[in-house]
Amino acid sequence: MRVLGIESSCDETGVAVYDTAIGGAAGLRAQGLYSQVALHAEYGGVVPELASRDHVRKLLPLVRQTLAEAGLSVSDLDGVAYTAGPGLVGALLVGAGVARSLAWALDVPAVGVHHMEGHLLAPLMEDNAPAPPFVALLVSGGHTQLVAVEAIGRYRVLGETLDDAAGEAFDKTAKLMGLPYPGGPELARLAESGIPGRHRFARPMTDRPGLDFSFSGLKTQVLLAWRDSDQSPQARADIARGFEDAVVDTLAIKCERALDAAGSDTLVVAGGVGANVRLRARLQAMCAGRGGRACFPRPALCTDNGAMIAFAGALRLQAGQRADAAVAVVPRWDMATLPAV
Ligand code: KG4
Ligand code: ZN
After folding, report:
1. Which residues sit with their C-beta closer than 6 Å to ligand 1?
2. 197: left (phi > 0), else alpha (psi -120 to 50), else beta?
3. Which pLDDT tens digit goes with each residue over 14-23?
4. For the sheet containing 266-270, what is the strand order?
5. Kindly report the CA angle at 31 between 300 and 319, in degrees rounded to 5?
6. Which domains does the chain have, with CATH numbers?
7. Average pLDDT in the chain
8. Which of 2, 142, 160, 192 stands 20 to 30 A from 185 (CA)?
9. pLDDT tens digits, one per residue of 181-217
10. Relative to the alpha carbon of 115, which ligand is closest?
11. Residues lining ligand 2 (ion), CB within 5 A?
């Protein structure tokens, strides 16, 4: 089954074709991504209306380009998948409108995909993929969740952030030290030249049982350290390193607890912060230490992309699930309410 996937929930327009007959990493026939980062940079964050309008401009050309790269035409498609939520309502409607119309015109089924399920299943597209049950850590700009994956489509949220998401904490911390939007990857790059241990920030909520997170207090600690410093490039790098170590440590401690709670040794990590090199190394070491493994998608499939939507949608379409002929989106959507596959 050849499925076109469309992602438009926030500030990236993503399109991909996944072929289940090939499967694995090779099943990803082509993918295209257009990032709106430059468009939103001058505002220091995503402006929803500008995001919607840019998806309108970029989506159809990107669909054409991706199909051409795959050597396919629209008539070769067996289904269309689109991000139906959670996300910005206007941005979601652009993807849903195009996807639903295309499926209608081609007389093929369409399915709305949960964005976080897309992230969660992305590692399963890679070769040597793990099979459920496992524990997933979802760390993106909007979400930080630990999920017990009992089967594909059967998700139990074990813990989540009570305030900022991990990626949001990276972005806000970067911003208060004067780094341009989106600061997360830049902060991580800076941390490479920071001296470990020069700043020690808290590991929030690790001193008590439980699997929830809270990252908003870290910002304040960073702000105070930044104000008290000489604000030199080295001071910025040292603080970045202290911040990154605090987030990575906190995530690793909670992941280990979640594996214990779920009786599992397999951890799947997904979402934009999953591209963080130090987090990857730390979680791999933690899982290896208990005889298990940590699975990540390649970094390009950690951040938002169309491939994860094509893949997750293909699994649901193969199971016979379909969206009816309406352009419907779900800006707030609890993953635990999804139907099993
Ligand atoms: O999954 P994603 O692309 O979009 C959402 O669904 O939110 O995640 C984006 C988030 C941003 O907050 C970004 O700063 C963060 O992921 N991010 C990183 C890195 N790469 C992206 N954070 C830390 N280290 C990185 N290397
Ligand atoms: Zn995302």
Report:
1. 10, 140-142, 167-168, 170-171, 182, 184-185, 188, 271-273, 275-276, 303-304
2. left
3. 999 999 999 9
4. 154-160, 144-151, 134-139, 266-270, 293-295
5. 100
6. 2-121+301-337 (3.30.420.40), 131-296 (3.30.420.40)
7. 97
8. 160
9. 889 999 999 999 999 999 999 999 999 999 999 999 9
10. 2
11. 140, 304
